[in-house]
Specification:
Strand order of the largest sheet: 3-4-5-6-8-7
Distance between the termini: 27 Å
Number of domains: 2
Oligomer: single chain
Helix content: 25-40%
Strand content: 5-15%
Largest sheet: 6 strands, antiparallel
Radius of gyration: 22 Å
Pfam families: Luciferase
Keywords: Membrane, Transmembrane, Transmembrane helix
Structural class: alpha+beta
Protein name: Luciferase domain-containing protein
InterPro entries: Luciferase, Luciferase_dom
Organism: Apiospora kogelbergensis
Length: 297
């Protein structure tokens, strides 16, 4: 996800970044995401060095300096562990360096406290209603997966299958080819990585008309949804809101309709996810385009 912001509203034609054959050839798949707890392991040399340092400190430093140093050690260890966990989330729109880490921690101060709470209703929105109310979603089986991070935001367990991921990419490509005058694929505007689906003439602007994008690390997706459709997705367990999809005096880098949809684990779940993507297209384009999941993908 990129920390660039585009105000939602009626929008002109979308300047997509088209995916090239080279970008397809460089496709990499990784599901080794993990977040490590804070831990400290001391070997004999480290224990000896620590003991000598404490003895010298007691003789050479003032007591308040020793207390301060002892207090700073766990803080430094926590920051180091948190920074490396941030890097382990993989590439995203935010730079994988200390500047990106500091920026993300600034936004954490304003993040949603409950990503499962639906956004408030807004009677001025257009389209006035979502798409999923016509055919409600089934409940997703099992508990919700663990999701961490902000930018990038990633699903760290219950990863979808490689087969579902590759099939989803082909389905999105075929969906674009079938509706080439209105829909296209390209590199995600939010993430700056991964495959994105775009509206060429968005009704509600997102980020260059992006409808959704799929991650090649955890196989989950981000997309923009009508608030009523987002409420249905939250209720039935298929996703959660992005931490920065909130309303505050601070300008957020993503629209408040922005959500993460969990990676499909099997072909039945993939069909449900495609229904949610249809709803995302409805919100961005104010037009309904059916996604054919029965093609030879």
């Amino acid at each position: 996800m990129s920390l660039s912001y585009t105000q939602a509203g009626h929008a002109p034609s979308s300047p997509m970044v088209e995916m090239t054959k080279d970008s397809e050839d460089r496709l990499t798949i990784s599901v080794s995401l993990r977040q490590d707890p804070l831990s400290v392991t001391l070997d004999g040399t480290a224990i000896f060095s620590l003991a000598i340092s404490l003895i010298l400190g007691l003789h050479l430093l003032q007591p308040f300096v020793i207390v301060l140093l002892i207090g700073l050690v766990p803080v430094a260890l926590f920051i180091r562990n948190d920074f490396y966990n941030y890097l382990k989330l993989g590439p995203g729109g935010t730079p994988a360096n200390i500047q990106g880490y500091l920026r993300i921690n600034w936004f954490k101060l304003w993040a949603l406290r409950d990503p499962l709470e639906p956004p408030r209703e807004d009677p001025t929105l257009e389209p006035a209603e979502g798409l999923l109310g016509r055919s409600p979603l089934p409940y997703r089986c099992g508990p919700r997966p663990t999701v961490v991070g902000i930018a990038p935001q990633r699903q760290v367990d219950q990863q979808g299958s490689k087969e579902c991921y590759l099939r989803l990419r082909k389905i999105l490509q075929q969906h674009s080819d079938k509706n080439i005058e209105n829909i296209g694929v390209g590199t995600s505007c939010f993430e700056k990585h991964g495959m994105g689906l775009f509206a060429r003439y968005p009704f509600n602007n997102t980020c260059q008309g992006e409808i959704c994008h799929v991650h090649n690390t955890d196989f989950a997706m981000h997309m923009n949804l009508h608030p009523s459709d987002l409420k249905e997705v939250l209720k039935k367990g298929w996703g959660q809101r992005h931490p920065l999809a909130c309303e505050t005096w601070l300008r957020m880098p993503v629209p408040r309709q922005f959500a993460l949809v969990y990676a499909p684990r099997n072909m039945e779940e993939l069909k449900i996810v495609c229904k949610i993507i249809e709803a995302a297209g409805w919100w961005v384009m104010a037009k309904e385009y059916e996604i054919d999941t029965l093609q030879d993908a």
